[in-house]
Amino acid sequence: MKLKERLEAINLREQGKSYNEIKKKLKVSKGTLGCWLRDIELTPSQILRLKGRQMSGLSGGKINREKRIKRTKEVIEEAKKEPKDLMKTPLFLSGLMLYWAEGDKGAREVVKFSNSDPVMIKLIMEWFRKTCGVPEDKFRLCIHMHSLHCRKDIEEYWSDITGVPMSQFYKTQIKKTSLGYRRNKLYNGTCAVTVCNKDLFRRITGWKIGFIEIMKIKAPL
User: Fold this and answer.
1) How far lies 181's CA from each of 148, 150, 151, in Å?
2) Per-residue b or e along 21-34, where b marks 16 or more CB atoms closer than 10 Å to that residue's CB
3) Three-state DSSP class for 190?
4) Which is the most buried residue in 20, 139, 158, 182, by most CB within 10 A?
5) Residues 42, 24: contact at Cβ < 8 Å?
6) pTM surpassing 0.85?
7) CB–CB of 193/162 below 8 Å?
8) How far apart are CA 33 and CA 180, in angstroms?
9) pLDDT (tens digit per residue) in 18-54
């Protein structure tokens, strides 16, 4: 047992320090602290202090959530107005439909598009650049492939297709397969293009909503 650390933990707890404060200083687990400090009683003023810190943290989290929700609504509401004019542009409409069908729609608010068709990837890159205004240094690519399709030039292939340097590639993901031969010798894996921009994700969401309203498409009951 770490006697020195235990004695220091007891001393800190008697000063009214929280488990997190003690854990940060001594680098021991909360479970260990629970065993060491379970018999130590805090004074009323110490309890009030810890509760005040806890409520402050909760309040800060609530404020951040409210800011995020407000920002999301603002960006979506503004973007909803844009398709009325942008629909006249073939690139805007084709890119929006392509992302709507194949793009990421998750709660993380990350813009992500994955496909194995190089033509689709070229089109979505054009859309990202010209319609969405994504700066070149914000693109991140990740290649997914089966072990049978591994080639040394696979990243170079997708770098040429996208115009994104390999320095902006994540580590290629290789999935093992039980097949003993390649069914499609022309297969070059799947390219996932990611742009970590929450406001862009919200804009795209707003564009889709605006398009639906213009087309007067009603969701099925």
Assistant:
1) 7, 12, 14
2) ebbeebebeeebbe
3) strand
4) 158
5) no
6) no
7) yes
8) 54
9) 888 888 888 888 888 888 888 787 888 778 777 777 7
